[in-house]
Amino acid sequence: MKRLFLTLGILVAGCSDDNRTPTDPADSNTHGTAIEGQAKADENFNCIGTASGSFANVFVPAGRTCYLQRSTVKGNVLAREGSRLFVSDTRVQGNIDGVEARVVQVRGGSLGGSIQIKEGSSAGELGAAVYGGTVLSQGNITIQKMNTGTIRIADVVLQKGNIQIQENAVGSGLEVVRNRVAQNLQVFVNRGRGAKTVRGNTVGQTLECKENTRPFTGGPNRAGEAKEQCF
Length: 231
Fold this sequence. Notes:
Structural class: mainly beta
């Protein structure tokens, strides 16, 4: 009888182990996707939700939202069509690209490459922004053909590159203020009812603003040469 009870106990214990709920691989980030947590390091990474860590490259899937915080990216960050990307206090050795992304915002941190935000649609939002002391060691900032609420480039340092803001439509405003640009700053053909302001910038070479619709404020700024609407 004791032997029978012992055998049954072993069988029950075995069934209990087999019926445990398995760990979801997504919870441990084995597929390279993080939601609200520390992501797996040094991999190509699909960012959904909030992530921090060290990565080779970061991709935001189409239509999704990524908050990339206090991270290091050895390559590039790419926001795909209809996505929203918020990068803060992050070091990116390559580029940040948002082609047809709804929103791309970069606050603080540093880049070894360029920032390109273009052809996205996000009415009523801050659709394109680089601000908060972001430093680009050698790249450019290009904001082009965005249809959005606000565009803001503020308190940014470009140690070697250029800024180009071109052919955008803004409902609420365009601000290019207090930036230090080693080479050229160009603000061309921006339209919309929002106030457009280019003021307090220090530009090593040429500052040029032209064909921007009113309301537009073009200075004062400091530049090697200022042209058209800017001074």
